[in-house]
Amino acid sequence: MKFAMLIIGDDSEWSTLPPDEEQDLMQQIYGWYEKWQPTGKIADGGAELQPRTTARTIRTGADGGSVVTDGPYMELKEVVGGIVIIEADTIEEAVEIGSTWPRGAGMTAIEVRPLMSRE
Description:
two-stranded antiparallel ribbon, 6 strands
């Protein structure tokens, strides 16, 4: 079964990391992939998202049309900063895998959610 592992945090903290701390954290993340990739638990290597300041939010307006705003519509401190798709037999196993993700500045939570399957 596939699960989305959402990396959640305050991207303003991540963007202000000194280069040596950012490099150290990235090395830990690469190590995480090196640990899990050979086990077949990484279904998709995932993606790191650019800061929320680069985002656009689309909502339905009063007339039913689209209303586009810069960045997140609400003032959120925590946003999804990245996603990895993992393969696990149970949500408990997915949580176990997710709990080994390296923590650092700008990373406050890991959310694990089963992917929908409409087969």
